[in-house]
Amino acid sequence: MDLTGARWRKSSKSGNNGGNCVEVADNLAGVIGVRDSKDPAGPALAFDPAAWTQFLVLAKRG
């Protein structure tokens, strides 16, 4: 999936200490991008919005 034009934001659960950080881009139609903030030029995952929503629901349940 093409993530050109993605506006990345850091997860609110990521600290400022340079640890494990996740960035999400949800400004593109039909795709949610996820990447490691320590490697912005590296690979990114792309999810359709329904799959991303289901992931969030399950993650919140633990």
Automatic annotation (TrEMBL):
Region entry Disordered, spans: 1-20
Domain of life: Bacteria
One Pfam family hit: DUF397
Domain DUF397: 6-57
InterPro entries referenced in this protein's UniProt entry, alphabetically: DUF397
The protein, known as: DUF397 domain-containing protein
Organism of origin: Micromonospora arida
